[in-house]
Amino acid sequence: RDKRIAECIKKIGQIERETDSDLFSSVVHHIIGQQISTKALATIWQRMKTAFGTVDAYSIANASIEHLQLFGMTFKKAEYIQEFARKVESGAFDLDTVEKMPDKQAIKELVALKGIGVWTAEMILLFCLQRPNIFSYGDLAILRGLRMVYHHRKIDKKLFEKYRRKFSPYCSVASLYLWAVAGGAIPELKDYAPKNR
Q1: Residue 125 φ then ψ, to 5°
Q2: What pTM value is reported for the model?
Q3: Do 26 and 127 form a contact (C-beta atoms < 8 A)?
Q4: Which of 25, 27, 60, 116 would staple 85 via disulfide (CB 3.0–4.6 Å)?
């Protein structure tokens, strides 16, 4: 329906992104991965797999905070993932129920966990639960992609919602292409944001 994004899709071609369909490991991954490199996260995850065999709620819930820290994460992150694992173990956080919830409700449940903000919850819905209609106003690369494709200087909430309505119910696809554009996939597109003096 949208000529400009259609043009981008044609130029970029099919985008493939890795997904993690296990909600428990996706939440743990996202908490540990905040503000560290992908490589550092992979190292920590590999250490955990070597130690536990399977990184599941039981093994994390029953490990001490000190033990979890030895894998290379901060005290706070160790605390957050242990608390999450215990909630899953006790049934206070039901993974299956959350997986079946509508987007808004699932985001609300995830944000109630320590260490998970709105943007992280939205990324879990997109890359783990593979929801088709996720569009994050908190994502700077999506805002940059919109500025580049539609020649805006600034994207405020009202304008963003206009694009959400336009791309719905396939906002997740638009997100993938806007990320690609923001990353330089179409060299002739530039960012129209005013330059800081």
Answers
A1: -65, -40
A2: 0.92
A3: yes
A4: 60
**What DSSP character marks residue 194?**
P
182 within 8 A of 148, measured Cβ to Cβ: yes
Per-residue pLDDT of the chain (197 residues; tens, 9 = 90+): 899 999 999 999 999 988 889 999 999 999 999 999 999 999 999 999 999 998 999 999 999 999 999 999 999 999 999 999 999 999 999 999 999 999 999 999 999 999 999 999 999 999 999 999 999 999 999 999 999 999 999 999 999 999 999 999 999 999 999 999 999 999 999 999 988 75
Closest CA to 66 of 57, 76, 56, 75: 75
Going by C-beta distance under 8 Å and a sequence separation of 6 or more, which residues neighbour residue 173? 132, 167
Q: Specify the residue for token string 């909430």.
A: 157
DSSP, collapsed to helix, strand or coil, labels residue 76 as: helix
Q: In degrees rounded to 5, what are phi and psi of residue 146?
A: -65, -45
**142 closest CA partner among 103, 170, 187, 172:** 172
